[in-house]
Amino acid sequence: MGATVHQAVTLQFKAMNNQAEYVALIAGLNFALSIAVKRVQVFSNSQLVVNQVNRLFETKDEVLRKYPQLARPLISQFEDFSLTHIPREENQVADRLAKEGLPDLRRTQVFERPSFECTEVSSEEQPPCWMDRILSYLKNGTQPEDRQEAQKLKLVCAKYTLVDGELYRRSYAKPLTRCLRPEEALKIMEAVHRGECEIHARGRSLVMRILRQGFFWPNIHKDAQVFVEKCSQCQYYADMQRQPAGYLKPINSSWPFAVWGLDFLGPMPTTIKNYKWILVAVDYFTKWIEAKPLTQPNA
């Protein structure tokens, strides 16, 4: 018997039950591929999803017809795969987890938009980009003649894999993330930055939302910052500091132990006595430091 791993998915867009089942299926397949699983048995209480993936019948719903196109390339990467329908009353463990949720949010994937909306990118002739050398090596074994450069390329390519001809980056903390070309990255940034509610995510928040959606490119932090700086609405309405910069004014003390500075440090690793915060006091005159461990950050 192996270990049991729980992975939760949170949808931040309106979705039907069958659509949520498809998102969970695709997220689970990506997670299985990221940990090198070769054989998978999937059980679902959605008869529509099971029969559609197994090609027993097709649906007329335009949205649901797009999900098998995302799932089947992932399924083809497994040596053995089966998808079986299970009655709802026999699926109590999954139902209980869905109602209670996972306390560890790091094991929760958040989808702000349907995956097929972010992946509908033109497949026309693409200009050269950072992915070309990696794709050439993984597909054809092409590498530079210089021995050192070839070794560097091998080390870089070890972080990537091919799924149905598409380049994905491996990760220790989350499933495979799809690598994007510059023009694809721009469309993804526009979609995620705008969001369903015109949230206009900025900087690090925008980067984390893109990564949670399952996309990656090397200069994502720099590109996100430049993209936000070019957004006129963000520059006009953003909550940023507009007061002119001034000189720092240090706090002076005329004699020892007259003026103290207090601050909390933590949370630290919990000790045997349940201490995990430190109250630090510094005398402004002598720079003398006093520290006291606390269980809670209050006076």
Automatic annotation (TrEMBL):
CDD domains: RNase_HI_like. Residues 1-103 form the RNase H type-1 domain. Residues 252-299 form the Integrase catalytic domain. One of its GO terms (biological process) is DNA integration. GO terms for molecular function: nucleic acid binding; RNA-DNA hybrid ribonuclease activity. InterPro entries: Integrase_cat-core (IPR001584), Integrase_H2C2 (IPR041588), RNaseH-like_sf (IPR012337), RNaseH_domain (IPR002156), RNaseH_sf (IPR036397). It holds the Pfam family RVT_3. PANTHER family: RIBONUCLEASE H (PTHR48475). This is Uncharacterized protein. It comes from Apostasia shenzhenica. The lineage of its organism: Eukaryota, Viridiplantae, Streptophyta, Embryophyta, Tracheophyta.
